[in-house]
Structure formats: structure tokens, C-alpha cells
Specification:
179 residues, alpha/beta, Rossmann fold, 6 helices, 34% helix, oxidoreductase, FMN_Rdtase-like_dom
Length: 179
């Protein structure tokens, strides 16, 4: 059965290594017959959460920017995929800001169950991604019907395009193919 898959590339860098991971996940998910939408944050206006909590009653944010639209797409997705570069051993700020702005989903009847994380970093050590996983898991823990269904980490990649031929690309494709 076809799933609605939302892939969110959070990198501020167009065509970066984490976005390349996202593209491979998209390719795999489409090859498997899923309905896939990819959103990039580098070209979006996303402001910080004000902490007003109005969204807990309205299921919509009072800030009308691109995050509001993305969050509404998250609400109806079966699968959500976040792709991020690792900055200082954590997710990039753009991803964290979007997660904060997804607060309207907390009290909503969201559809997503499976969440995936794709990450790329200059550092090669496998633990480099741990901070991003912990941060995303903290968000997921607020949604009792959701789970972290898989992660892919590409270490040792810095400049745009350096990820070409990295084994993580095949892993991202296969993960997408098996959503």
C-alpha cells in the first residue's frame, strides 16, 4: 500500500551532502511506489517559536510563514524523514527551529508513525550523530504513536558533492525503498 512520505531537507546549503542523502531516500521511496514530497528549508522563511502555546488550542501557529505550511504537511504524512548536516555534534539550527514550530501537531490527530533521520558530517566517528538522534528522539517521544524507524549517517564528508560514492547513499536508498 502506498504511503505519503514527507522528506524534509533541513540544510542551509543547496545540494549539500545531507540533501543528497534525502534525494536517495526519495528515489528509493518513489521506486517502491510511494507518494513522496521533498521540502527544502534553505529557501524558506521560518521564524522562531514564540512559546505562546496558542497552537495547542487551534492546531495552527500564529506565525504565518513557511513553517506553518510544512507543519500542516507533516500532519497528514504517514512517514516523515529529516535530513540534516551535523553541526557541533547536533542537528542544524534550521531543523531544531522546525521541530519547535511543529508544536501544533502535539495536540492534533497526526497521521505519521515512522520517522527517519538522515545525517552527514565532516567527522567520521559513528557517535558524531548521537546528539542529533537524541534531539530528534526527544521530539518523537512527545508523539506516542510515532517512532524513530531508522537512521543513516554519512561521516567524513564536508564539501558539497563529497558524499558521492559514500556507502550511506545506498543505505538511504534502501531505507526509502522499504518504508
Amino acid at each position: 500500500m502506498s504511503k505519503k512520505v514527507l522528506v524534509i531537507s533541513t540544510s542551509p546549503r543547496k545540494g549539500g551532502n545531507s540533501e543528497t542523502l534525502a534525494d536517495e531516500f526519495v528515489r528509493g521511496a518513489r521506486d517502491a511506489g510511494n507518494d513522496v514530497e521533498k521540502v527544502t528549508l534553505y529557501d524558506k522563511d521560518i521564524r522562531f517559536c514564540k512559546g505562546c502555546l496558542v497552537c495547542q488550542n487551534t492546531q495552527r501557529c500564529v506565525i504565518h510563514d513557511d513553517a506553518d505550511t510544512i507543519v500542516q504537511n507533516m500532519l497528514t504524512a504517514d512517514v516523515i524523514v529529516f535530513a540534516t548536516p551535523i553541526y557541533y555534534y547536533g542537528m542544524c539550527g534550521q531543523m531544531k527551529t522546525l521541530l519547535d514550530r511543529a508544536n501544533p501537531l502535539f495536540s492534533a490527530d497526526y497521521r505519521f508513525r515512522d520517522i527517519y533521520l538522515l545525517a552527514a558530517a565532516a567527522e567520521e566517528d559513528g557517535h558524531t550523530v548521537d546528539g542529533a538522534v537524541t534531539g530528534l528522539q526527544g521530539w518523537i517521544d512527545c508523539f506516542e504513536k510515532a517512532r524513530l524507524a531508522g537512521t543513516v549517517f554519512a561521516g567524513g564528508v564536508t564539501t558539497v558533492g563529497e558524499i558521492q560514492n559514500h556507502p550511506a547513499l545506498k543505505q538511504a536508498y534502501e531505507l526509502g525503498k522499504n518504508v
